[in-house]
Amino acid sequence: MKKILAYILLVLAASGCIYPFDAGIVPESGIRPVTVSGDILIGSVTEIGLGFVYPVGTPEGEMRRKTPSGSVTVINDRGDSYKGVKSGAGLYRIDTSAAPEDALYRLEIRLDDGREFRTPWTGVQEAPAIENLKFEVSDGTVRMLADLGGRDSLQFFRIDFEETWEYHADFVPDLMYLPGLPSADRENPQKIYRPRQADEDYYYCWNTASSAEPFTASSEELSENRLVSACFHSLPNTDTKFSVLYSVLVSARGMSERAYRYHYQVRSNSNATGDLFSPTPSELPGNIECVGNPSETVVGYVDAVCLAQARLYVPSNVYRETRNPESELYYPFPDEDGMYNFESLFARDAPVFCDDEIPTKTNVSWAPKRCTDCRLSGGSKNKPEWWPNDHR
Q1: Exposed (0-12), middle (13-18) or buried (19+): which is 50, by Cβ within 10 Å?
Q2: Is the pLDDT of residue 352 over 90?
Q3: What is the Cα–Cα distance from 220 to 240, expressed in whole angstroms?
Q4: How far is Cα 162 from Cα 181, in angstroms, rounded to an integer?
Q5: Fewer C-beta neighbours within 10 Å, C or N terminus of the chain?
Q6: How far is CA 265 from CA 260, 279, 349, in A?
Q7: Looking at per-residue confidence, does 28 or 315 come out higher?
């Protein structure tokens, strides 16, 4: 029977995601095992993330602050070298867009602490064909589906994606509040309100998110090397991502069999679906070796691959609203001293509508600021250049 395993945290820096899984590693004294995430992307920009394993309970901020530092380089058997440029904590971008597909590649990492790591020479996995992208709605769930095709030699597939969605605030205010007035004017509705300016349009926003972990699949048991209607992502149709327009950019790649087995087991362990006798990543080693100390554990697997990309849009007619924003509007009321305290309201709420031409203490409705400023829900006013809608 297996020994009880120590739970640790893996930093997947390339995707910006930190999540717990059981890697079955007991670090040597004074040595913090390294994690490596990402693939060598031929014809695109390679992104490699370096991290450490941490005990469960380590604050996420500490994990993001303390990442390995050094140099990351992609080389091929023709003598070409592609040096990485640091783009963030533990993140390196390498321009491999002009790298030839018919070469062998390896990743080399040199850390400032003197340790060196490298992968074996590997050929480039071809990109599958994205034959179709579609969505379907059933039982209150929006499922995004892909048909992928490959040559006879391609049996293992991986899909990553980036979501982008437009959403709107609930209300466009008629009036704006003027904070910081002299105390004598703070309850005078003829002075505390002003019309909204044209540049105070906080109604339209956009937001993005990347897949936390890849979708992987195999055609080993199928009659041909194709995936049909593979569900790579799903969300409830009550998710506000669908409230206006939703888009998902799908990136598909082939995988080596060993990489597929490795990622499958990592996902099983992270989702607690592996059984008692399933191998942990430390028992199913990746392909990253510490130069001079092959026994040192390195968590990760790096393939050399080509990408195929396609975009899917999901319209708002799939969306089911579950709340009534009108129910959150209210009219301020005085406290026990007869004061309305508009100044304190402004800290959390915002004026919205005026029932008459002249605002008074009782005819201007207010709403939580999140209902009037779309930026408070995490998005921004930065509309992507490719977005099909023409408003901002």
Answers
A1: buried
A2: yes
A3: 38
A4: 45
A5: N
A6: 9, 7, 48
A7: 315
